[in-house]
Write a structure and sequence with these properties.
Number of domains: 2
Shape: globular
Radius of gyration: 26 Å
Number of strands: 12
CATH superfamily of the largest domain: Butyryl-CoA Dehydrogenase, subunit A, domain 2
Strand content: 5-15%
Order of helices and strands: HEEHEEHHHEHEEEEEHEEHHHHHHHHH
Oligomer: single chain
Largest sheet: 6 strands, mixed
Number of helices: 16
CATH architecture of the largest domain: Beta Barrel
Structural class: alpha+beta
CATH topology of the largest domain: Butyryl-CoA Dehydrogenase, subunit A, domain 2
Strand order of the largest sheet: 2-1-10-11-7-6
């Protein structure tokens, strides 16, 4: 089934419990902290439903293309096209759009044998996500306070990380916290798991499962909403529509039916399910494509800002813009390579090239801050020369002065103000600050991201090149000394 946007909005009125501080939010589709973000997510459903290229058919049923398990490069291209269309709608600012975790689950379902006795659960869950066009997000990290469990043991305190507290005939019972469920207030399901390695003794924490957002005992503790404080779309054009929010997931004696359990009492497998299946690769190809769309916006803004003052004619500025263009093309090439050199893995399926994907992931997390800083330098102090807000246009005298004195030969005053408002919302607002932090740790700390590339590198092949080269020459024989006259 392909949901409509209105159907998705209706699915969010399900009794979920969301807190902003002590305020309980009864309806995320109408609350001023979330309503525009909810509509941005709903628009994704309408877009993909309207375009036949963004779905595939099995039997008589149509499904969203991000649930497609690829058997050919064309299948991978179809998936990638939908990722790009979704990312383009938010200019890459919705990191956990409905295609992200769906891609993880799709990739994992391509080798359910990895899950052992819970493999059938995973297969059935994937089928249900497809059938109901569900929007899933994940919470796959322990809270930072839980990363020193010995402290809690010594103090006789409960470890805050989510864990199984008991087994019942009809399922597990879990309590504790998980971070960070980005987009959860707009989602139908939360995948709970472990992307960080666990110690072999952390068996209770190894649980991997999926829960409806409105599950009894599950609450979402949202960070401060930026959308709520956006005055208007003119003043905060990105915050107004694309604040996807981040939430801590709190579980208090939450029942997990056995059919929703995918890993239990296996600390090693809890992480390996992502990297021993195409799940991590499918999900992070989406991340690469999403970042590429964001980079296009950054490059376009850099050029428009330079043109607004005529600085684009300055050789040093043109050099900066040329570098921006080269960076965008480089990322585009890394993404294209993932399809061109796709892997036949696991048997019978196609997967994006993992090494290229991880290289792009590392590039994105390393590069975002410096790219934003370069845009900041291009913007200079121009943004602070603008009036406080658009109300200046409501007074005829002030409007006349503004339009006369704030224009440049290249751009009218109002368009210039709009440009600077947009740029500031990308580099200087609270929304922008969140994105700066988010992109830096999007896929985990830098050592985690680089470890993926280390794991996938063909080290024996690299070593053989060195060994073969050294084997091609030997220690030289002693030469006769020349007599000095």
């Amino acid at each position: 089934m392909l949901k409509t946007g209105s159907e998705h909005l209706e699915s969010l009125r399900d009794g979920r419990v969301v807190y902003i501080g002590s305020e309980r939010v009864d309806d995320v589709t109408t609350h001023p902290a979330f309503k525009n973000g909810a509509r941005s997510m709903a628009a994704i459903y309408d877009m993909k439903r309207a375009n036949p290229a963004f779905s595939f058919t099995e039997g008589k049923q149509k499904y969203s293309a991000y649930f497609l398990r690829a058997k050919t490069k064309d299948d991978l291209q179809k998936r990638s096209n939908l990722h790009r269309a979704i990312a383009a709608m938010s200019h890459g600012l919705l990191g956990r759009s409905p295609d992200h975790v769906a891609s993880f689950v799709t990739g994992m379902s391509m080798d359910p044998s990895v899950f052992g006795k819970y493999g059938d659960n995973l297969t059935r869950y994937y089928a249900r996500m497809c059938k109901d066009d569900l929007y899933g997000v994940y919470a796959v990290l322990p809270p930072q306070a839980a990363r020193n469990p010995e402290f809690y043991v010594k103090q006789n305190l409960p470890v805050p990380s989510l864990r199984v507290v008991r087994e019942d005939d009809d399922g597990l019972v879990v309590s504790g916290m998980k971070m960070l469920a980005t987009g959860a207030v707009f989602a139908n399901e939360i995948w709970i798991g472990n992307l960080l390695p666990l110690a072999p003794t952390q068996l209770a924490e190894s649980v991997t499962c999926a829960l409806p957002v409105n599950t009894k005992g599950l609450t979402l503790w949202s960070r401060k909403s930026f959308e709520r404080y956006a005055v208007s779309e003119f003043e905060n054009p990105l915050t107004w529509r694309f604040d996807e929010t981040d939430s801590m997931v709190m579980c208090e004696e939450v029942k997990v039916p056995w059919e929703r359990v995918f890993v239990h009492m296996d600390a090693i497998l809890a992480r390996e399910i992502y990297i021993k299946t195409p799940g991590h690769c499918y999900g992070n190809h989406q991340s690469n494509v999403r970042f590429h769309e964001k980079l296009k916006l950054i490059v376009g803004l850099a050029s428009k800002v330079a043109h607004a003052s005529g600085a684009n004619e300055v050789p040093a500025v043109r050099e900066v813009l040329g570098r921006f263009s080269a960076l965008e093309a480089a990322l585009g090439g890394m993404i294209a390579g993932q399809l061109h050199d796709a892997e036949d893995w696991p048997e019978g399926w196609k997967t994006f090239n993992r090494r290229y994907m991880y290289a792009a992931l590392n590039w994105c997390t390393e590069s975002h801050s410096s790219i934003i800083d370069a845009l900041r330098e291009l913007l200079g102090g121009g943004v602070f020369q603008m009036p406080a807000d658009a109300s200046v246009m409501h007074d005829e005298h002030l409007k006349g002065l503004f339009e006369k004195y704030w224009q440049t030969p290249q751009l009218g005053a109002v368009e210039r103000m709009k440009l600077y408002k947009l740029a500031w919302d990308l580099i200087g607002s609270e929304f922008a600050g969140r994105h700066l932090q988010y992109e830096k740790f999007y896929a985990g700390a830098s050592f985690i991201v680089r470890n993926h590339s280390f794991r996938e590198a063909p080290w024996p092949e690299f070593h053989r090149l060195v060994d073969d080269l050294m084997a091609s020459y030997d220690i030289p024989q002693p030469s006769k000394k020349r007599k000095v006259a």
